Amino acid sequence: MNKAGERLYNGLVKENPTFVLMLGMCPTLAVTTSAMNGLGMGLTTMVVLALSNLIISLLRNIIPNRVRIPAFIVIIASFVTAVQLLLEAYIPALNKSLGVYIPLIVVNCIILGRAESYAYSNPAIPSLFDGIGMGLGFTFALTCIGAVRELLGAGELFGMGILPDSFVPIRIFGQAPGAFFVLAGLVALQNYIKNVRKKAGKSYEKIGSGCSEDCMNCSEKGCTKRFYDENGTGKSANGAMDVLDLDKEDR
């Protein structure tokens, strides 16, 4: 799998920010009263996440390490402001429905986390696709939660009546406790599928999100920070390859 495809698959499945990493729980539980709200919030976050990752990656050699977090927040806040103004101008109903949770994207731990763990130490294109992948994973999770809550709580899906008139809506799914019930159910389903795949001999372990500093076991052969290769050969400070005597080092 190429680097871009790996990052997309990673965000959607192996490190889904909601179902696997359990990040961004505030908007996940607050705005998913309907599938449309979940879809809108997810896509808005994806746009901010992808563009922020791209810019932070491009500026990673310029941003001083000591002020990287304030710099990340300034970049993210700029994109959030632009997206909010666009929503207010072209999709005012969605903007009103999501309310204060759009400005709160600035401090969403998914965006800051990806900026810190991936974009700040990786090239621009992989960082862009990492943001898109994580954003799509977040969008998928929020849309699923919103769809289940809307279907059980109102008998509708994307505002259209789905269930027959005889169906009695379960109102609790439209309220705060319903979000916890649906999230727990979907996470349990995801874990069940994961276990079935493991028993079938298919690895479902997470792809590394950034540098683990475990070069001997790292699969990123093209990593510029890689110190060891598979043969126990290490890079010296000037980039030359030196054969390491690991037994001597242990002594």
What's the gist of this structure?
This protein has 251 residues and is mainly alpha-helical. The chain has 9 helices and 4 strands; from the N terminus they run αααααααββαββα.
Please give a structural write-up:
This protein is 56% helix and 4% strand. It is mostly helical and 251 residues long. The chain has 9 helices and 4 strands, in the order αααααααββαββα. The model is unreliable at 206-210 and 226-251 (pLDDT under 50). The two termini are 40 Å apart.
Instruction: Note the gap between the termini.
Output: 40 Å
What portion of residues belong to β-strands? under 5%
Mean pLDDT: 81
SSE pattern: HHHHHHHEEHEEH
Helix and strand content put the structural class at mainly alpha
Largest sheet, if any?
2 strands, antiparallel
Low-confidence segments, given as residue ranges, are: 206-210, 226-251
Helical coverage, percent range: 55-70%
Principal-axes geometry comes out as globular
Beta-strand segment tally: 4
